[in-house]
């Protein structure tokens, strides 16, 4: 056996199962983080529009990722890891938004979670961990798959948020 084949066989023995093998969404995993975020935002815009909900904002210079009526949403996108969790990076509490919407990309499904910014700041959406030691601006939020909601329920969730806002 040549050295490359030997190393490849050892790597296979020590590698976790690839949950993304044969996934229709595998190309998402090959993108850079900026592209992943842009794809997540565009997906949310188009999916909501297909369900009769118009959105605003959405360009690179906007202070908010998406606006629906008067509701401002910050969107974070992450893919499912082998350990069954998503890590939503660069969550910021110093930006102006009303809700944090986390979009989780699974090998064969899409899920989401949405929380008021105050809930995020109070750790009611989950534990925030600093992205880098000694700074307090950007955080990561780790969520288990079983804590997320199937994306088909997103339009209903957004309509509930809009209804709450209109009744306030």
What features would you describe in this structure?
The chain is an alpha+beta fold and 168 residues long. It is 32% helix and 27% strand. The chain has a 5-stranded mixed sheet. Strands 3-7-6 form a 3-stranded antiparallel sheet, with no helix packed on it. The radius of gyration is 18 Å and the shape is globular.
Helix-strand layout with pairing:
Blueprint: H1 3-14, H2 26-29, H3 33-50, E1 66-68, E2 71-79, E3 85-92, E4 99-105, E5 110-116, H4 117-121, E6 128-130, E7 138-144, E8 149-150, H5 154-167
Parallel strand pairs: 2-4
Antiparallel strand pairs: 1-2, 3-7, 4-5, 5-8, 6-7
Descriptors for this entry?
alpha+beta; 27% strand; 5-stranded mixed beta sheet; 168 residues; 32% helix; 8 strands; 3-stranded antiparallel beta sheet
Summarize the helix and strand pattern as letters.
HHHEEEEEHEEEH
Helix content: 25-40%
Q: Mean pLDDT, rounded to whole units?
A: 90
Shape: globular
Q: What is the SS-derived class? A: alpha+beta
Report Rg. Answer: 18 Å
Q: What's the helix count? A: 5
Proportion in β-strands: 25-35%
The total of beta strands comes to 8
Low-pLDDT residue spans: none
Main sheet attributes: strand count, strand direction, barrel closure:
5 strands, mixed
Q: What is the strand arrangement across the widest sheet? A: 1-2-4-5-8
Distance between the termini: 71 Å
